[in-house]
Amino acid sequence: MSQLSISTGKRGRSVASSSASTVSSLSSSTDLASLFECPVCFDYVLPPILQCQSGHLVCSNCRPKLNCCPTCRGPLGNIRNLAMEKVAGNVMFPCKYSTSGCTVSLVHTEKADHEDACEFRPYSCPCPGASCKWQGSLEQVMPHLVMSHKSITTLQGEDIVFLATDINLPGAVDWVMMQSCFGHHFMLVLEKQEKYDGHQQFFAIVQLIGSRKQAENFAYSVDKR
């Protein structure tokens, strides 16, 4: 049996600035953004922008999957549309998760970084392993864990003790539990891997069920006994 003493603490509060612009798009900017819609996936065509011989655009994600222009059926070619690239630099593009509730619009150079961390993006099940294929919003993660992973125990408080039993089981083994404190939930995963050079290896992973911005407010310590 292995015992972990775990402590969670809040970091000092700080004022965070975001590079993503929250200025609402004017109707003119919205009209311009619509000119950049990909005719295949309806996402935005962003620089570098390539066009077919007739001037039609397609996004970089769809382009490798196509044999011809989806609009005119002509050859795609590798012609850069420099005029549209210049226009794109002055357009505020909505986040691709706007239909899920995100209201942010931003310049194309900041779009990918924002969407990678957007709290409205779909979240995968945080449980270790690849057996659970669930995806949903951040607000749905905890209800999913409660309903579909009932074997996970939740302990309350800033300092908890996690008892890992049967640590001598052969092969790689995971132990999972939840900690609830400061109005948030944390998932702790203790992982045992195969013996390396005659010794067992243990790894502890802590994940806040929340956004990356919220995670910056916490510090976590694990003590193995």
From TrEMBL:
Domain RING-type intervals: 38-73
Pathway: Protein modification; protein ubiquitination
Entry's Gene Ontology molecular function annotations: ubiquitin conjugating enzyme binding; ubiquitin protein ligase activity; zinc ion binding
SUPFAM superfamilies: RING/U-box (SSF57850), TRAF domain-like (SSF49599)
GO CC terms, sorted: cytoplasm
Domain SIAH-type, first and last residues per copy: 90-150
One GO BP: proteasome-mediated ubiquitin-dependent protein catabolic process
Pfam families in the cross-refs: Sina_RING, Sina_TRAF, Sina_ZnF
EC number: 2.3.2.27
Substrates-to-products reaction catalysed: S-ubiquitinyl-[E2 ubiquitin-conjugating enzyme]-L-cysteine + [acceptor protein]-L-lysine = [E2 ubiquitin-conjugating enzyme]-L-cysteine + N(6)-ubiquitinyl-[acceptor protein]-L-lysine
Coiled coil: none
Alphabetically ordered keywords of this record: Metal-binding, Transferase, Ubl conjugation pathway, Zinc, Zinc-finger
Family assignment from sequence similarity: Belongs to the SINA (Seven in absentia) family.
Function, in words: E3 ubiquitin-protein ligase that mediates ubiquitination and subsequent proteasomal degradation of target proteins. E3 ubiquitin ligases accept ubiquitin from an E2 ubiquitin-conjugating enzyme in the form of a thioester and then directly transfers the ubiquitin to targeted substrates.
Description of its domains: The SBD domain (substrate-binding domain) mediates the interaction with substrate proteins. It is related to the TRAF family. The RING-type zinc finger domain is essential for ubiquitin ligase activity.
Protein name: E3 ubiquitin-protein ligase
